[in-house]
Amino acid sequence: MGKKQTRRRGKVLEDAILRATWQLLNQVGYNVLTIQAVAKIAGTNKNAIYRRWADKARLVVSALAKFGPKPDIQIPDTGNLRTDLGQFFEQAVDYLTYLTSDQLAGLWVDRLRDISVAKMMYRLDAIDNNYIRKSVTQILHQAEKRGELTGQSFSDRVLNLPALLVINAAITAQGKLTQAAMAEIIDDILMPVFSKHEYHRP
Amino acid sequence: MGKKQTRRRGKVLEDAILRATWQLLNQVGYNVLTIQAVAKIAGTNKNAIYRRWADKARLVVSALAKFGPKPDIQIPDTGNLRTDLGQFFEQAVDYLTYLTSDQLAGLWVDRLRDISVAKMMYRLDAIDNNYIRKSVTQILHQAEKRGELTGQSFSDRVLNLPALLVINAAITAQGKLTQAAMAEIIDDILMPVFSKHEYHRP
DNA sequence: TTATTTAAGGTACTGGAGTACCCTGTATAA
DNA sequence: TTATACAGGGTACTCCAGTACCTTAAATAA
User: Any stretches that span the bilayer, and where are they (chains A, B) (predicted)?
Assistant: First the structure.
């Protein structure tokens, strides 16, 4: 009846820690979760955790990556830029809604602590490697090939704009992002920016 | 040679605490500042502080309000929309840059700790969003009167866009927001959005 | 098989947040 | 002037983050 016959190592132990983290995250949420509690549930101690992750936020991000929902988004190619954008964002909304849920409150906030107040927007979707940005770039590329856009190149700021807008919308919308909000983003902001024929830099 | 003859109370003590907070904030920055250290410098103890402020962030915000810089921004009216926008943001940048400086790193992060990311952005631009939004509305109104814009009304989302962009830029810029970044925001995004002649909602 | 290296587990420590409790000086009211 | 209420000050406590150091189990190399 000893405590344990085997001493787990490497990946096995890491998995146990991440599983415990995921369990606790779902039980109590990010803010209440402590490293000590994770260690206890995983049947190990703080050291094993601190050897692998610098802080709670990184630990939880790992658990999220392993057990959390994965975005399953197809890049549309309907032959029309506006339609492509609409369909793409429609798919992204559910995932974003989860990432901003109460359960994860405090997580992104912590991730911001060390990287200056910075890159909130980038980091927010950094969890899936600038997925939004890459997809939008692809959609724009398709539009260019069709001749819908006049082969201009877009700045980083413009390429990040869709992610910024949609994340901001998901966040401020409290609940779910509506069709109308999405249409407004696309028609009032994105389309004018992507197809700026009228206005030229002085 | 006793420690102290008088026992300070109320506003006198509060001022001493805020002064100590401000001093320490400038010496070591927000992240390093501790309540205990503030108490020591103020010649009091933690209890007197915790009786007044719930946490470090709120204490520092109070000190900031009392001793920090105040924004002093004039709304320009040069007869040209783009110039107006340029001059306005130029003035706003110094203040925003201070609010997001290393010295204050961690402060906004802490202020957002207990709320979900949802309310985060909302709060983030609540810092100053109204001010920026109101000013931009005024600038747009001037442009309309001059006939620079075709009397269209702008949605909330569009009116909040300048604040969103400039705050995001200040946050992600690490150091100071440059002229170039500002020009990019105005020329690549704001001007096309405000003067969208080419693209029309389907 | 044995020796060596690595990392897990245990224990203990520092230091700050935040709370509790009590004593005492000070302002106010009686 | 004295009694009372309140808030400041002191001390001590719990909890957690994070680090240090030592031991021991397990993987690997010799």
Answer: none
Give me the pLDDT at residue A166, please. Answer: 75
**Which has the higher per-residue pLDDT, A68 or B34?**
B34
Mutate which of B113, B172, B176 to test chain A, going by most A C-beta atoms within 10 A? B172
Best of A30, A101, A189 to disrupt the B interface by mutation (most B CBs within 10 Å)?
A: A189
User: What does the alpha-carbon distance between residue B169 and residue B175 come to, in Å, rounded to a whole number?
Assistant: 10
Q: Which amino acid type is present at position A97?
A: T
Q: Which domains does chain A have, with CATH numbers?
A: 10-67 (1.10.10.60), 81-194 (no CATH)
Contact B109 A110 (CB under 8 A): yes
Per the prediction, chain A carries an average pLDDT of 78
**What pLDDT was estimated at residue A155?**
84
Which whole-number Å values give the CA distances from A197 to A79, A194, B53, B187, B198, in the listed order?
A: 20, 9, 53, 12, 7
Q: Which of A105, A155, A164 sits opposite B115 (nearest CB)?
A: A105
pLDDT per residue over B81-137, tens digit each? 899 988 888 887 777 777 777 777 777 667 655 544 444 444 444 444 466 777 788
The answer to whether the beta carbons of residues A17 and A60 sit under 8 Å apart is no
Query: CA-nearest residue of chain B to A197?
Result: B198
Mark yes or no for CB contact B192/A187 under 8 Å.
no
Whether A7 has a pLDDT exceeding 80, the answer reads yes
Q: Return the residue matching tokens 């700045």.
A: A155
Global confidence as pTM: 0.73
Nucleotides of C under 7 A from a protein CB: 7-12, 15-21, 25-27
Inter-chain CB pairs, A–B, below 8 Å: 134
